[in-house]
Amino acid sequence: MAYDEGLAERIRQVLEGETGVSEKKMFGGLAFLVDGNMAVAAGGDGALMFRRDPGRDDPVGEHIRPQVMGERVMSGWLHVDAEGVASDDALREIVGRGLSFARTLPPK
């Protein structure tokens, strides 16, 4: 499934002006990397996944759950459905979380 172009554009707007950001198509989505480390990715149907500290207990709930690829739970990643990023404020918060954690990693 192709990634959601509208969501990708919204993510670009959130990341506008951030240093070290690049884009790369991967996993059927469009990943946004910070200094070579993936921070967030636009998927299909308006959903996204974002990077988080795997040692931290992030809240999961109605619109956020662990990211699963195939049968494997992706440690350090959470999936957010379209409703979870429907508002610009929610999208900024989620993208900011992914961006903040990616900035703690050494550049690639």
Automatic annotation (TrEMBL):
Chain ranges of the TfoX N-terminal domain: 16-102
Pfam families the record matches: TfoX_N (PF04993)
Name of the featured protein: TfoX/Sxy family protein
Organism of derivation: Ornithinimicrobium faecis
